[in-house]
Design a protein that fits this description.
The chain is mainly alpha-helical and 141 residues long. It is 65% helix and 0% strand. It is built from four helices and no strands. Helix 1 runs antiparallel to helix 2. The longest helix is centred in the middle third of the chain and has 37 residues.
């Protein structure tokens, strides 16, 4: 979807508009792209921090603390990688026209939910059902 839509600087999607019209799609596309740029920039800093410090600390406590910090950084990096994948998938949904609609029911996800979580793929109702099913499954095991 190559677009020449230029959004007004103060544009926010509203319920008064047609759901997932071109301006709303462009708004969320820009929001996702900017979010991804921010995350990538932060993750570059995290990688640089990981490369900097070595584990050759003479003190066992310092070395253990450093190893714990690095393990936490790596877990954070993995979460970031997964989030970037979700952002890319959301951008793909904008391109194919399925963005903003629940992948289970086909119903609109809703502007408020997308504003809070632009990578959402389920409506609130479907998400709650999903979480109840997971909890039931977890309780059985």
């Amino acid at each position: 979807m190559t677009t020449s839509i230029i959004l007004p600087p103060d544009y926010k999607p509203t319920a008064d508009e047609e759901y997932m019209n071109e301006m709303q799609l462009e708004y969320f596309r820009q929001k996702l792209i900017n979010w991804k740029k921010s995350i990538v920039s932060q993750s570059v800093d995290t990688l640089e921090d990981l490369r900097q410090g070595g584990l050759n600390q003479p003190d066992d406590v310092d070395r253990a603390s450093l190893e714990t910090d690095k393990a936490l950084d790596l877990r954070t990096k993995d979460r970031i990688r997964k989030l970037i994948t979700k952002i890319d998938e959301a951008l793909d949904r904008i391109e194919d026209g399925s963005y903003g609609y629940c992948e289970e029911t086909g119903e609109p996800i809703g502007l408020e939910r997308l504003e809070a979580r632009p990578v959402a793929t389920l409506s609130i109702e479907a998400q709650e059902r999903h979480e109840r099913m997971e909890k039931t499954f977890d309780d059985e095991n």
